[in-house]
Amino acid sequence: MVWSGRCRVTRFKPPVNEASPGFVTLSLPLLELNELFTRRLFWLDATAIWARNACVTAPSDGYAHPDLCVDAVQKKYKGKYTLTCGLPSSSGDLSPVPCHKRAISTMMRASNHLFHLLTLTSLVVAQRMDPNATISSLHNDQGDGVDHYESQDYMPLTVPFVDGHSNSGAPENTSMRRHSNSKVFFYDENHEVVAFIDQAAAQARIFPDYGALKPLTAPADIKGVFVDLEHQGRAFPPDDTRIELVEGSSLLGSEGVLPPTEGYGTVARRWNDAGNTTYLTLGTVRRFVESNSAKIPVCGPGSQASFGVGHENKLVSLSYQWRAAKKACKKRKPLPANKVLEQIDEALEKYRSPCRSVRIKTIDLCMYDSGARYIQPVYRVIAEPFDPSKNSTTSVKQILEYIPFGGDAIEPILPPGQAFSGVDGDEQALQPNTVDISKRSLLNYFDARNSKPRITVGRYVVRNDSDGFVEDARNFWSNLAPSTIYEFVRKGFFWAYPRLYNKDANFFVNDVNVALTEAHGKFHGFTTYDATAAIDFVNIPSDLAPGGFGPISNGGKGQLGYWFIDACEVMPTLTDFEAIKDPNPQGRTFDPWWPVFRGGIHAVLSWRTSALFADNTAASAAQEIALGRPVVQAWLDAAQADPAYRGRPTYVGGGTGLADWPFGEGSCNFQVWAHQGQSQ
């Protein structure tokens, strides 16, 4: 017995007899018939539609190959696509028989001409779109190929410009500290970093002071601030690319006060404002190239420019990395569609397992800018993992991959999610044990003499799921570790179980200062075992430890100050519940969190919408925290500036079923919960 993809294949040698064709038996989980069988796949002699997995290889003798692994067989019956199971008749057709509800056993005959027809791999199964048709259409639009571009060396923005706009326009309160010949950091009077510029990397950041932001009294004038950037800052020098200004997301805030201890789950008049207030509006400079009368957006970490406009139309934030680009004199020619699909299949293979497949959601072209020497064409692929045997009610983390256009990459494409890889030397994720964790928590003599503030960090990763969760957790730690301001101490890197958040929380999540949860999610909850809500799901607040988390909990022994829940749709807002016409949107938004904050925790940080494995939000937030940025501000900065979320179409929210901006770019999709009204 062997496992291949998500098919369990029984191997045997078929009888060598012309009258008895070779067969192979598969056991498959229940498929999503309404999705799989209404998609156009491939015809065989106008009678059957076949989909195959990557392990299919053409047999030389016309009989079933030992590595044959077929996902589905169906035929057109009375004008409709219907699932059919059974033995082939003498004509080679399938005789329909009733199919088992939980598994499909199919006997099928292998033939050479079938495999010549089947050029797609498992990517064709249960897709939300037709990958082959999409790629062919992209190739038709770019028939003679796509140019690549060479990046120039100089940095457009200057140190005086960044200095003059840092700290919300109050440079007299800043101090400058040069870390290298090219990198300069700016600090406020509290020694918190407020801006930096790296001329070698052509990068600059101005961090907003979220605690000091005032509500906007009128719509933000993003055009006026853009003109200042373009002319005074010379941020966008003329070159062979094009730019356009787009109004981006807005930072919306709602404020509430904790209700009385008794009846804290009830709805009361405890709101300081009637709805969401706008504190900051983002302007995004979208870069693109024109190719064969089409606009191809620039993607990747190397070209990004977004700025925040606050009260009185002041520039209060900037996320910028930019180099001028010159068109090269050589076009990249597209490969055949089947070759491209093979490349995509190979890139997505690491996300598959015997019980998990991957389906593609979108494929488009973009120009990938790594921030190094070139801007090159790539296929931008958004996919999602799924288990066809289950009807998941969670919002799964999605996958972003960049596939080189026209063959090998001109220069290496940075693996998505690793733009901030940090330091090496991380430990392995372990099974949680309360005895081990108590031994780890002892503070030795040398730690006690350390002059830097000591901050313990715990990481808790969903089991039986993609390695992308582990990578995100590793990148989070590796960017905290190099800090010269704090001493971050690893205190647990564990596979997650519900008990770590409940009966054993005081040995795990509530025994560290900073906790990171990596999982799938849905409204007010997250997974600890794959993407299902049916096994070991954690509901907020009912599945959390009584008394909440933080220094007031556990008889004053609780430790948790900041909880990052890097999972989709865990933190819905008033907007979401109003959109689905919930009769009590305020209560649905805030009530689940009051029990958590009873313990004195400082902040919980998560996502309102969907997230990507390929983002760098947790890692770049950790990098800012290591530099001295306040935790909440670092998370908000990283989320709104992450290049993985730029230029995507709208998506349908899992909790609302309504079209929304992608992955948090339509509004500020992160809620900050402050204990007793403190400003974080």
Q: Could you characterize what this model shows?
A:
This protein is of the alpha+beta class and 680 residues long. The chain folds into four domains: 2-123, no CATH class; 127-148 and 335-414, no CATH class; 153-250 and 277-323; 434-677, Rossmann fold. The protein contains 15 helices and 32 strands. The strands form six sheets. Strands 9, 10, 11, 12, 13, 14, 15, 16, 17, 18, 19, 20, 21 and 22 form a 14-stranded mixed beta sheet that branches. Strand 6 and strand 7 (80-83) form a beta hairpin. The model is unreliable at 1-127, 261-274, 417-425, 435-449 and 659-680 (pLDDT under 50).
The tally of structural domains comes to 4
Helix content: 10-25%
**CATH class descriptor name of the largest domain:** Alpha Beta
The fraction of residues in strands falls at 25-35%
CATH-derived topology of the largest domain: Rossmann fold
Poorly predicted spans: 1-127, 261-274, 417-425, 435-449, 659-680
* Largest sheet, strands/sense/barrel: 14 strands, mixed
**Shape, please?**
globular
Pfam family, one: DUF6345
InterPro entries: DUF6345
What's the structural blueprint in terms of helices and strands?
Elements: E1 2-4, E2 7-9, E3 26-29, H1 33-36, E4 43-44, E5 48-52, E6 70-77, E7 80-83, E8 103-104, H2 112-117, H3 131-141, E9 146-151, H4 159-169, E10 175-178, E11 183-187, E12 193-198, E13 203-206, H5 222-232, E14 242-253, E15 277-291, E16 294-299, E17 304-309, E18 315-321, E19 325-332, H6 337-348, E20 357-369, E21 374-386, E22 399-404, H7 434-440, H8 445-448, E23 454-461, H9 467-480, E24 487-495, E25 514-518, E26 521-522, E27 525-526, E28 538-539, H10 553-556, E29 562-566, H11 574-579, H12 585-590, H13 594-597, E30 603-605, H14 617-627, H15 631-641, E31 651-652, E32 659-660
Parallel strand pairs: 16-20, 23-24, 23-25, 25-29, 29-30
Antiparallel strand pairs: 1-2, 2-3, 3-8, 4-5, 5-6, 6-7, 9-19, 9-21, 10-11, 11-12, 12-13, 13-18, 14-15, 15-16, 15-17, 17-18, 20-21, 21-22, 26-27, 27-28, 31-32
Helix pairs in contact: 3-6, 9-14, 14-15
